[in-house]
Queue: 3 jobs
Job 1
Amino acid sequence: MNWYPQVGAGTIAQLPVTRTRKWRAITNNLESGEEVMLPDTTAGQIDWKLTYQDLGSAEAQSLSSLFTASQGQFAPFAFVDPLANLLGWSEGLSQPSWQAGLLQVNAGITDPLGTQRAWSLANPNTGAQVLQQTVAIPGNYVACFSAYLRSAVAGTVTLERDGSQATVNVGPLWTRASVSGQGASGASQSTFSIVLATGQLIDVWGLQVETQPYPSAYKQTGAALGIYQETYFGGDELTMTNTAPGLSSCEITLISRV
């Protein structure tokens, strides 16, 4: 399966991005005059309009190569929603999407917004323990994993993406921490983790993974969404316009089946 390429420092798209969700319903008009309408659950799609400016030669070539490999509209590829939080159940840490090991995980903690949507994580064990979730994005994608953290006792917490780590200071005030970069080379998925040392207790809220170098505004999620394995180019022509030596611009329309 081919993946839609990232450009620049590691983004899927340049702003603005137009995302249009479409649904289809089937209507039957009965002889009695009654109308029965049912959703056609297999016909949903998302239309994307992506506009790029100042693409370097390598970036323009990566888009052109995918278009050639896909034979225009013919073959599907995988596309990641550039606006999505890719984690499932970002405020449901007891859901099967999360692996908590031997951590004690409790809900109902006051979050930075003043509601009770944060969680406490406690590690009473003799070794480090992790809260983690695996996301089906390739290792060579740049991604940012972020979370709001707090601890009554000042210390440090480690955020991980595969082998990449960021150790951050935590204290009694909520702070947003993140780790950014590529994952394991050649991997078909990436695992994002919060590591707690022996005896550590922290509060956590607003966990987020997005395919860009820096965190954006937090987006709450339910079931994991945002990765579309059946995406097509919206036309059989891809026009690259040279705007300066070594720079190009283009507009691309994509259609994702959902």
Job 2
Amino acid sequence: MRVARIILLLSIFASGFSSAQELITLIRQDKKNVPVKVYKPNNPCVATAIISHGAGGSENGYEYLAEFLRQQQFLVLVVGHKQSGSEVLNPMILEKGLIPALSELITTASAYQARFMDISAAKEWASPHCVAPLKVLIGHSMGAATVMLEAGAENKLGITGVDGFDAYVALSPQGVGTIFVEDAWKSIHKPVLLLTGTQDHELNGTWQTRTDAFASLPVGCKWLGVINGATHMNFAKRGFSRKTENLVTQTTLSFLQGVAANNCVTPKRLKGMRLRVK
């Protein structure tokens, strides 16, 4: 009887959890399909958040962050980037090896142009579903590069973003190197949150190079958080780091609440993370 009751409760919980998610397919401007997982808040939304995954990822990732923001009454869309997802990356890995494949994909301009079209389709769909004005773009790894390119960072790929969001969150942002030029971020005036970890090493750098953007960004609601011990994949909920996930969600919420209130003050310090604000 007790086992049956537990199974029933788990079934109810799972049903309620899944009802807040919906997998949809959008058509972008070049008529290609865009898979999107939508996380719908129970009450009227306070903001729209679009999440861009890393190279080889999909719309099924970053559930910990998407579900957390949904519970805070955000309408959240995790966009699947098919032109830089697993179907593209895996054959490249078999042919070239992991590091060369990743290095090539994250420096392919057409992959970012495809990502911009994916995000544009998601943003257009979200517009009538959430009338709250605040719109934020969040990305990890290649998604972080997508975020900074959209925000207007100067780059070596010939890409120009439209800066169509009110705030930006970059998890594992890239430094000066194969994508971004020296001082690339100096013209980004919108609020920006950067998060990395002391084990979050770049392909051609260290975790410290991921802080390059913060040094270049102008003053005005710019945050940099460094999580002690966090690896690159901890931000994607791999490596079983509940600590990293909690710090990412709490810091992101604090940042976005400040943006919404137009009062981006120094936040409460969280154990396990060094935070700088300017």
Job 3
Amino acid sequence: MNKKAVFLDIDGTLCDRSGVVSESTKKALRIAAKNGHHMVLCTGRAKVQIFPWLDPSFFQGCVSAAGSCVTFGDKVIYEKVMEWEELRNMVDYFRKMGMPYFLQAEDAIYTESWSASEMHDAFLEIGRTEDDAKDILGKLVVLENPEEQPGVEKALYYRCKVTAEEMDAILGHRFTIQDSSYKVTRFCDGEITCRGITKAIGMEKYLEYTGIKREDSIGIGDGPNDFEMIDFAGTGVAMGNGVPALKEHADYVTDTVTNDGIYKAFDHLGLLTP
């Protein structure tokens, strides 16, 4: 078998909603990497939200912030950050509409105090504990004008009363806007990257750098921001707990994240065979 690059979403794919990575998943990652395949995270999270929570020794690369940053080992091989003027206009709209938001950079996540307070309450509303909320929000840097920070790659917004498509029009079609893969509120939650940036762009940059062919790439995901990943990959795999529409795009549908879905997918694709 040719060496494969396996691009893996995190939430709902590598781990369940409580953040637990099963032992079968860890075993699959170890065996596949030992067999020479690249294990590459492909996530909407910024790197500050990933390591050291996930053991970096499991992975050869990372596509973070939904394609905005790509690393091979410790080396950044691609990064796309937001223009300040466009970022300011976006944050001004969030403030006007009272929509909590996070700004993601590789080394920090920024927001304002009112936004952090509202998101604390929102996490409690979906059943996360007080300790969970503090752990999640503890990653934040709370500032009066977070949009002035350099290196913002991606934004998350919550409690929006319009769809992602409507939000795209409101912000002048200057960004790529998608429904969030980690829904927190009963309204529309979404994520925003620079125009044209998706997980597929990050995958393409990683493959170009490593010389692995597109047909030897595998994408595994479960949520709304995984469509481009599934469609771009040589082989697209949807988790059994994935959104129904994603399963229709996939070449293979594995079991759920809580029922050894990653291990079963790796076994089905021959990644566990020397």
